[in-house]
Specification:
The chain is built from 16 helices and no strands. The relative contact order is 0.14. It is mostly helical.
């Protein structure tokens, strides 16, 4: 391994640690809601605002803050974001009431949205062009592992020592991430390009980019129709004991990490081709889960493949959006990445909300096929987008000839 390769790998590891901390924060309060409600003498529904406001903070904060901070050095901005992250979670741990806790969650969410936006472009800039998707997938591995492993561990810690202990543990991870970024991320990173208003208008009015954002929301969010309610599904439908469910979720996390790496490599050359097959397989696996969920062995196999495919699309989606931004709104590259992060979170919100409706009105087992329908929508949109890409290539070849 060359010196430059080693340095870029260590820098990507620092970004992955940061992503792990931020990913754990995003979903941690889901497992802590009853504890928070009991301690602060509020309803579980009111405590649920800690999830809702966080998602809204990410969705709306990412594009706005990315646009406002383009002149700040990427490394400086990265360090500032981790300081905000540490402050937000420290405030959450010390919160004496729901208003303070909600304010703390919004502060943490603002750092989340901007971090995930600039971290993608930083990761891409650390490596040669043909390794960009792999670099982004390595950074996102921290987020994907946190989604399943960080959250159960944080929830367990909260149950043993109180919900504030979980936020204090996240603060500790944030301090580790801050130190890693300080030491391992190079200082000579390019500054973000200032995004003129006309470029931002191009970004939100360009049909190809809007199509890509819709693919992100449907394709990524579809799995969350099931994932949000995976624990009760495994317990109530498949019949696993609660302790066993925790182990299955850890295995699911390992499958996610493997799939993320595979997805990065598969999307390095032609992301749309890779995404089409990923979404098609993902929709098929979710549909199959509808029939295998009541049978433990079959359910385990299906859920492993569900995990493998769940986040496999993330690197390809980010790379494709950056590619489109370079082509149709070159002055809005970072903002395009931020809007796509917002689309990921919009997908999570839509999927989780839809999963709740399905669970309440139809039953847990139906979350699987409903999620499959949502992902199949992404399959259709990806096929359309791929056809447009092929048309562009034919036009370019004709003009070159």
């Amino acid at each position: 391994m060359s010196l430059d390769h080693r340095k870029s790998t260590l820098a990507l590891l620092a970004l992955a640690i940061s992503a792990f901390a931020i990913g754990t924060t995003e979903f941690i309060s889901v497992g802590l809601l009853p504890l928070i409600a009991d301690d602060l003498n509020i309803s579980v529904t009111t405590a649920g605002l800690t999830v809702t406001l966080y998602a809204l903070g990410v969705t709306f904060g990412a594009p706005v803050l990315t646009s406002l901070t383009t002149r700040v050095s990427r490394k400086t901005l990265l360090l500032l974001l981790m300081l905000v992250f540490i402050a937000g979670n420290s405030l959450a741990a010390a919160a004496g009431g729901i208003c303070t806790l909600l304010a703390a969650r919004v502060i943490s969410a603002l750092s989340h949205g901007l971090f995930m936006s600039i971290a993608s472009t930083i990761a891409a800039d650390l490596v040669p062009e043909n390794r960009r998707a792999s670099a982004i997938s390595m950074m996102f591995t921290g987020l994907t592992v946190a989604t399943v492993t960080g959250v159960p561990l944080g929830t367990f810690l909260g149950q043993q020592l109180g919900w504030r202990a979980a936020f204090l543990a996240i603060v500790g991870i944030g301090i580790l991430a801050l130190a890693a970024n300080l030491m391992l991320v190079p200082s000579g990173l390019r500054k973000g390009a200032r995004t003129p208003l006309r470029e931002q208008v191009k970004l939100v009015t360009n049909g190809r980019l809007l199509l890509a954002f819709a693919i992100t929301a449907l394709g990524y969010g579809g799995t969350f129709v099931v994932f949000t309610y995976l624990s009760p599904l495994l317990h109530e439908i498949s019949g696993f004991q609660e302790k066993t469910v925790a182990v299955i979720l850890l295995v699911y996390g390992i499958a996610i990490a493997i799939g993320n790496v595979i997805g990065g490599r598969a999307a390095n050359r032609k992301p749309m081709n890779a995404l089409f097959y990923m979404f098609a397989l993902q929709a098929a696996v979710l549909l199959i889960l509808t029939f295998t969920a009541p049978f433990q062995t079959a359910a385990l196999i299906t859920i492993f493949f569900m995990g493998l495919l769940a986040f496999m699309n993330v690197p390809g989606l980010q790379v494709y959006v950056v590619m489109l931004a370079d082509r149709f709104a070159p002055g809005a590259r970072d903002v395009a990445s931020a809007v796509n992060i917002a689309a990921f979170n919009a997908g999570i919100a839509i999927g989780a909300y839809l999963g709740g409706l399905v669970t309440d009105h139809m039953g847990l087992i139906h979350t699987a096929w409903v999620g499959a329908v949502m992902v199949f929508g992404a399959v259709l949109l990806t096929a359309w987008s791929r056809a447009l890409e092929n048309r562009d290539e034919r036009i370019q070849r004709a003009e070159a000839a």
